[in-house]
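Hey, resending since the last one bounced:
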Amino acid sequence: MDRRRRRARALGLAAALVGGAALAADAGPPLRAMRWVPRDADPVRVFATQPGECLRLPRDSAAALSVEVGRAAFRTPVLLGGQAARAGLSCESCHRAGRDNPDFQFPGASGAPGTADVTLSLFSSHRGNGVHDPKPIPDLSGPRDRLKVAPADRPKFIHGLVAEEFDGPEPTPAVLAGLVAYVDALDPAACPRAPRMAVAPAVLMSDARRALDAARREMALGDRPTAVLMVAAARTRLGLIDERYAALPAERQHLRNADAGLAALQAAIREGGPGAAADLDRWLAAAPALEAALGAREPLSLFNPHRLARATNRRLPANRS
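The structure tokens again:
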């Protein structure tokens, strides 16, 4: 592919990414990630459920904290930055619950579903090769030899994924160590019995609380940049809830207010204000009421498989509850 054709292709994909918000107001799908799956994919199977996470937390508290930092970073587009973040892509987009994603098919970056081009020029000025060469997305929770990266080489490998493959900002030492620890803690022997679990507000709120617990501990260690990223991870989870409550203005306003509180918390952490820890504790204290309000209206949201099916012009099979 010559330079002119590569540039035209990159500009076309960039326009699709930047124009996503405008499309959503018109005929776009109700969930942003629906743009990254084949048109004929069952939206209820893909978006009302998710794979179970095969995570084995270390018993050592410091090691467990590192895993939680990595787990939260893995789930926010802020980690990757650049075009990936603008598109809403995180590590989790390709590796749902730390596994693979056989339904992932990003325009211009995938071939068959479940593949991704990791040398795409649009995402990377370091590794872009101008060749469309998508590869299967590996299951990070599979057998250890499937990672094809020796444990000693994983920090360098993961750093390259963030800073070079996606041109992301330089991860802090704690974030990089956390990402390595999280991948190392994914163990096929720890997979839950049920292959998939329901996606629900309570699940995403739990993720947010875990990220904020990690933020608190990083603040106590004096690592403000890592704490800010942990809060960003919590905000990402609120955003995933928010898009499913688009038809419920009162609940959506509660979510927007909660997000505004986290945005203020990020600013306080950056400034090193003494009240940041108290602000975080107040947010966590108010979170159960928010979760209860969301849960009460969950049947009317797009967490309800029947409503999700109707929103995407699908019907649930008669034998599906």
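The chain has two domains: 49-190, 200-309.

Sorry for the duplicate.
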